[in-house]
Amino acid sequence: MYSLREGKLEDLPRVLELIKELARYEKAPEQVTNSLELMKEDGFGPNPVYGFYVCEKNETDEIIGIAIYYYRYSTWKGKRLYLEDIVVTESERGNGAGKLLFDRVMAKSLETNCTGMMWQVLDWNEPAINFYKKYGATLEAGWLNAHLQDYEIRELLKS
After folding, report:
1. DSSP string, the chain
2. At what angle do helices 12-25 and 36-44 cross, to 10 degrees?
3. What GO molecular function annotation could you give as one example from this UniProt entry (predicted)?
4. Positions marked catalytic
5. What's the pLDDT tens digit per position in 79-119?
6. Contact 105, 132 (CB under 8 A)
7. What's the rounded Cα separation, in Å, for the pair 81 and 109?
């Protein structure tokens, strides 16, 4: 029904579409400021900072899902694979594509000698929470996400 492969440069337009679909699902479409140009540079330029897998529907070769990951370093645990996003287009959810993608990313973490992997899930996203619970994943409470945008950093460093 589905096949998996590593993502390629020519996949990026569809990848960005799926990212925007996820943002609509998470009720934050206006927060997607990424672009094809940035994704090309960041994923296929001289210093790639992320990788991804695509899940295709066998009969059409249409990309119906993606898993985007990168590596981070934990001072407590060492090298970790960070799963940024798994996205399966709405019409294909519940048919096994998410499992294929998640399993592949888990395998990638072992292939690259990571001490484990991590990701985030919104506290209201029950389908995703239940999906991860099937794996016995630890869902931590007590951590708050923090971020600064580039324009905020510029202003702060000026002062």
Report:
1. -EEEEE--GGGHHHHHHHHHHHHHHTT-GGG----HHHHHHHHHSSS---EEEEEEETTT--EEEEEEEEEEEETTTEEEEEEEEEEE-GGGTTSSHHHHHHHHHHHHHHHTT-S-EE----TT-HHHHHHHHTTT-----S-------HHHHHHHHH-
2. 120
3. N-acetyltransferase activity
4. 132
5. 999 999 999 999 999 999 999 999 999 999 999 999 999 99
6. no
7. 6
pLDDT in tens, 4-60: 999 999 999 999 999 999 999 999 999 999 999 999 999 999 999 999 999 999 989
Domain range list for the chain: 2-157
CB-hemisphere CA count at 13 Å for 98? 19
Q: State the pTM of this model.
A: 0.93
- The CATH class of 2-157 is alpha beta
